Amino acid sequence: MTVLIIGSGGREHALAESFARCGAISKVIVAPGNAGIALQYPCVPLNSLPEIREYCLEKDIGMVFIGSEQPIADGLSDYLREAGLNVIAPSRHAAQLESSKIFAKELMHKWNIPTAKYRVLTHEDQSEQYLSEFNFPVVVKADGLAAGKGVYICKSRKEAEEAIRSLFSSFTNKPNDLQRTDRGVVLEEFLSGWEVSLFAISDGLNFASTVFAQDHKQAFDNDLGPNTGGMGAYAPVPEAEVYRKQIEEEIITPTLAAMRDIGYPYEGILYCGLMITTEGPKVIEFNCRFGDPEAEVLLPLLDNDLLDICQAILNRKVYKLNLKFKQATALGVVLASIGYPGDFEKGITISQPMPIPSRTYFSGVAEGSSGLVTSGGRVMCVVGVGDDLAAARKQAYRRIDDINYETKYCRSDIGLRKNCL
Ligand code: AMP
Ligand code: GLY
């Protein structure tokens, strides 16, 4: 069978590596992929929904795995399913759990799923009234997809007012931009605690959960600086295990039940971004896919055949799935471009070991005149695997020393957080 993976980052590279290990898969193709992934797997520049559908039908693609959120929010999975294709990703309606923070908050509120208290602002002039209901810091979020960059933690009323103003003006400045379909701004109580992610593999009715993973979203060491798409991750997170049952019973089960109830059964990977607080685990966000860089550390630990997992979703047999993970730790460090998530230089030549060792997952790279050059804020994710966190960390950071480019930047403290209240 040929599998087509949709996306262009490290997560899709890790998915390709996992699918390539499946006995029943003869070919792995990535669309659009990137110049780094293309060193190992064929990448095809398919950019629109019709282009993807035509390609799948023409090339007899057995299964499509959509890695990234935007095509899911755009309705790619529905569009391909209508043509009779097998697709791993939720429908556009179900993906509102990620594509609209307002949708997710309203669903959680209605179903009593633990999350931060919130208010929805549909007009900027509601700021004064609603801000008076919150303590500081307060969290201000855009409704729609923002690649991890639509969240402001505001220490004062003035900061919050500025964040709200800048979000509303970003909506009104782009009336014709289809990416910005926000219905408003969410104001949220700031949750204290420590963060962890759990992934549920769901066929709409039943689910199986993975090991826990922990991302590091802030740009700089000690969790300082602006939020990014993710600067590094590791899995498993043993301190989270005591909360697993509670998360499954109070968060995942009712969320999937709610989605069935409203007529949008959730089929695919549900990413639960959680804050462990003194009152127990609470949802910070849902995403409708694997995380990036979380996928890069989860997939190397997976002991099941990834195709079997996908088939369990497609055949509604997740109740039979026995997920198995290696007794090891994986830790990934994202190599970024200095300046990310703000402005950064592109086109910088990358020198690195050749052939590309496994567990090197490319994202912001392009083909230069003599090898790969940087083309994005997050350039690649390098993963170490070891018996414990210290061993995985050591391997990942040692491997990074062999990779060089002028604008190379990474956090030096991935995996060093104290996960306690
Ligand atoms: P999100 O895109 O909603 O995951 O938010 C990005 C990051 O902002 C999260 O990973 C948290 O670190 C932080 N964050 C978001 N919402 C809250 C909240 N209510 N309380 C504390 N931190 C938050
Ligand atoms: N690592 C965060 C995300 O994938 O949204």
Descriptive account of the structure:
The chain has 4 domains: 2-88, Rossmann fold (3-Layer(aba) Sandwich), CATH 3.40.50.20; 117-189, ATP-grasp fold, A domain (Dna Ligase, domain 1), CATH 3.30.1490.20; 194-320, 2-Layer Sandwich (D-amino Acid Aminotransferase, Chain A, domain 1), CATH 3.30.470.20; 329-409, Alpha-Beta Complex (Glycinamide Ribonucleotide Synthetase, Chain A, domain 4), CATH 3.90.600. The protein has helices at residues 10-20, 49-58, 69-73, 76-82, 96-99, 101-110, 127-131, 157-172, 244-261, 294-298, 306-314, 389-400; strands at 2-7, 27-32, 63-66, 87-88, 118-121, 138-142, 151-154, 185-189, 194-203, 207-209, 214-215, 218-220, 224-227, 232-235, 267-277, 280-287, 329-337, 360-362, 365-368, 371-374, 378-386, 408-409. Strands 11, 14, 17, 18, 21 and 22 form a 6-stranded antiparallel sheet that branches. Strands 2-1-3-4 form a 4-stranded parallel sheet, sandwiched between helices. The chain is 27% helix and 27% strand. It is of the alpha+beta class and 421 residues long. Mean pLDDT is 95; it is low at 175-179. Adenosine monophosphate binds next to strand 6 and strand 16.
